[in-house]
Amino acid sequence: MRSLPAPSTILASLRARGFYRSDVQLSREEFLACMRALGDVKKPTEIRPRGPNPVLESGRPLLAHNDCNYYADFIAWYCRDDGGAGDRTFIVDAAPLLASLSPEELARLARVRVVLPNHEGGGTTVVRWQGGAPRLFYVPWALFHDGDPVVLDTLRRFHARVKEHTQRERVQGGPIALRSGEFLIVDDGRFMHGRDAVPDSAPRHLLRVYVKAASA
Known about the structure:
Blueprint: H1 7-16, E1 19-21, H2 28-38, E2 39-47, E3 62-65, E4 74-81, E5 89-93, H3 95-99, H4 103-109, E6 113-115, E7 123-125, E8 127-130, E9 133-136, E10 143-144, H5 149-169, E11 183-187, E12 191-195, E13 205-213
Antiparallel strand pairs: 1-11, 2-13, 3-12, 4-11, 4-13, 5-12, 6-7, 6-10, 8-9
């Protein structure tokens, strides 16, 4: 008999590893029930090929980035249709990137805004302090700064560092090829994520949600 993933199992994996991948195929409703058991589900978004969002719904690769950690804890993708090719998501540990930044670089990146009008609060900064520690929120296509050349140089160097780190340190070594009915949930504060190119012929269809943990 097929059993659904227990919320305690998902949370234990998120605490220990920072991510959880389902090992059973679920329906869309079962996936959403699992997410609601973890906390408040935010911004459910259907991602289809050739949809209206030129970033999310193209087949081109996406650079490593964060999605929601200034107002939610986890990002999850449910694969409604893998298009016969599987998904192409990868995840990368953000801690080494933060550790590589000097206090001066942290301060400069805290001056770079990430503007996301359709998200709660409208955005944040690339670096912010939370609980006395720096936190990273990087969306390379949504950045705005004051034009200070020192800040711009730091941002350019950081962008190159993210690309180098991504190629060297992917957690699972390659893309996570989700199949129809499977899901992946990731701690958006611990990991950045991105996507390798998706074949134009693949009718890839995902449901993405953000989750604010019930205990947070």
